[in-house]
Design a protein that fits this description.
There is one protein chain. This protein is of the alpha/beta class. Helix 1 packs across helix 2. The strands form 2 sheets. A 7-stranded mixed β-sheet has the order 1-8-7-6-3-4-5, with helices on both faces. A 3-stranded antiparallel β-sheet has the order 2-10-9. It starts with 15 loop residues before the first strand and ends with a helix. Helices cover 23% and strands 30% of the residues. It binds hypoxanthine and magnesium ion. Magnesium ion binds next to loops.
């Protein structure tokens, strides 16, 4: 037996590590909407695994921040599903344990991707005035961090409103060259440098209505290209 088979602990970014050679699961093994047949290569992270990992992140966040008031700042659009599920799980812990985490939830929208390429100009749309964050404990919730440029820009924007504390939860961190080194405090999964969709992650607004995180096929990229 190969002696490189070891039980995985967390990677350098703190999440579950998906290695570069992970081929994903065959689409035959899972349900997904018929309107995406032919558009996907594989199921990369099944929905159930995302939910289980999110439950643990909620516990970690509760352990660190419990009994403080927090303002959750959800980064739209891709962050909406992860944020909703994470907040649900923190609520469940608040109901069922001695600790409690009072939360308010706000939204900010960022846009930088066209097709599968990041554009240089990052737009913050809506909620430009974040003065409600002043003096607060802020938890930024993002679906994906790749170069970290977006996160860096956003942190700078948020810091300008002088919150008491800022933590970041990112469901996915992509291993990309030229990463800014700006990383979330809470990481769900560390993934290879591949373009993924589903669980609210889009390709030109498609695939948000897919519950698993999947790899898009070449024909899917062509079909939805703008
Ligand atoms: N998928 C969708 N949106 C993204 C990705 C990705 O892999 N990386 C950055 N934004
Ligand atoms: Mg997008």
């Amino acid at each position: 037996m190969a002696d490189d088979l070891t039980i995985q602990t967390c990677g350098k970014y703190g999440g579950i590590v998906i290695n570069d050679d992970w081929p994903g699961y065959s689409l035959e093994l899972f349900n997904y909407p018929k309107h995406y047949s032919g558009d996907l290569e594989c199921v990369y992270i099944p929905h159930g695994v995302i939910m289980d990992r999110t439950e643990r992140l909620a516990r970690n966040i509760m352990g660190d921040l419990g009994d403080h008031d927090i303002v959750v700042l959800c980064v739209l659009k891709a962050g909406y599903q992860f944020c909703a599920d994470l907040v649900e799980r923190i609520k469940a812990l608040s109901r069922n344990s001695d600790h409690t985490l009072p939360m308010s939830v706000n939204f900010i929208r960022l846009k930088s991707y066209v097709n599968d390429q990041s554009t240089e100009d990052l737009h913050i749309v809506g909620a430009e005035d974040l003065s409600f964050l002043t003096g607060k404990n802020v938890l930024i919730v993002e679906a994906i961090v790749d170069t970290g440029k977006t996160m860096k820009t956003l942190l700078k924007h948020v810091e300008a409103f002088s919150p008491k504390m800022i933590k970041v939860a990112g469901l996915l961190v992509k291993r990309v060259p030229n990463s800014s080194g700006c990383l979330p405090d809470y990481v769900g999964f560390e993934i290879p440098n591949r373009f993924v969709v589903g669980y609210a992650l889009d390709y030109n607004e498609y695939f948000r209505d897919l519950n698993h995180i999947c790899v898009i096929s070449e024909s899917g990229k062509l079909k939805y290209k703008v």
